[in-house]
Amino acid sequence: MRVEVRIGAAQEVEADAVVVNLFEGVTAPGGATAAVDRALEGRISRVLAAGDFRGRLRETLVLYTDGRIPAPRVILVGLGPEASFHAEKVRHAAAAAAQRARDLRARTLATVVHGAGRGGLSPEEAAQATVEGVLLGLYTYQRKKENAGGSAPETLLLVEFDAAKEAAIAAGARRAETLARYVNRVRDWVNEPGSDMTPRRLAEEVSGLAAEVGVRAQVLDERQIAALGMGALTAVARGSEEPPRFILLEYAPEGRLERPVVLVGKGVTFDSGGLNLKSEEGMLTMKGDMAGAAAVLGATLAAAALRLPVPVVALAPACENMPSGKSYKPGDILRALNGKTIEIVNTDAEGRLILADALSYAVRYGPRAVIDVATLTGAAIIALGQDVAAALFSDHEELAAALLRAADATGERLWRMPLWEDYLERIQSDVADVKNSAGRYGGLGTSAMFLKQFAPEGVPWAHLDISPMDMAEKARGYVPKGGTGFGVRLLVRYLEDSRP
Ligand code: BES
Ligand code: MN
Ligand code: ZN
Fold this sequence. Notes:
elongated; binds zinc ion; Aminopeptidase; binds ligand BES; six-stranded mixed β-sheet; alpha/beta; Leucine Aminopeptidase, subunit E, domain 1
């Protein structure tokens, strides 16, 4: 989709549909909505007087303009109550209006920049949120569809009356386009079936994209992984015919990689559970078990595309977890890259194992902070609810606070959970340094405490368990059903705000 800024009045723009907005409960519109209303001889006011449009968030109404303005249709969209207004509402409203325009088969869609007037957002912020909402809200997974492309609008015009805001709006729009490109790419990776999105395929796609934005990509194969001493990744991968890969991205702005933020992501391209095989229901969505890897890889590529002045490294251990005659077994004892031994209680607790090796690897970079992202536990979904929030664990107050701020700004919700020492007791093993499961109770806390044993000592570390958020059960606003791309915008926002 092409995105352009048009300086002028909303009632004068040429497009197949023009979007204007309204806060909930407002009966006398202002700004661009009022100007369009006047051009339509009070048609919007009459709809409001009749009580037929309330302005609830994502509510839309299509009005036909009968030649009174160049655009044949006006789409009125609700922003929800003014008191709880936030950039997140803009993303949702912009998505709802864009989806309505797609249903109407509009080729050119014009929209006001939501939230810049009465909403109180800066023009740049408002433009970014508006364009993010449109581009993220129109996403569909179409790699396997015959008629790819569909009926989505080809052009988006951001209409602004005040020429002084043009540069800021253009800048916000460009940022949004870059972010949405990588978020939507990550959604594709997650949606791609497990038999297609193998570790090798993921490594290949990522390497291709890295070259485009000047990021150094390195892919270690099974021999190199074993030779390094990554005993946990090697063991988990062993049951599969598909070889593992360890994907590394290094983004060094102006050639400098000192004290990078290291992002680590779980890349299990299919999790059958291994010998502790999952049920039919449990296995159905496990093509998405590489969403953590996808998120950190996508965020690193986006950071580079945006030329953020922050060095970033992404580490993504990628493998399948499969049952076979070669599978690792309950009772096995593995040695991770940092030398610690792990007793296998359950082969379905595989994510923490491959992350143990990757977190151990992170120390080589002398990182400023280490953040891992993983679809680690079903317990996170039990605790927080499907499609509600991801769990945040951190032993560092400032890092936790920075991530919570980024979550608030991006609408990618996090909820902080405790890292009590009790959880460490529960994963003590009689035969190894630690065991990989303590059973059902406290499964969220014990999984995080397990990871902490492998994070570089003395380095701020955070763990995001995104199991509730990686694949949406149903579409909601700008978040489609299936792969959500959760974490990309959150991590980029964190990186932006953490410039050294
Ligand atoms: N990938 C799963 C976690 C998961 C479950 C993600 C549901 C998304 C939706 C993970 O590898 C897993 O199987 N975890 C086990 C751990 C248990 C065996 C200690 C779980 O949560 O049941
Ligand atoms: Mn598992
Ligand atoms: Zn898993």
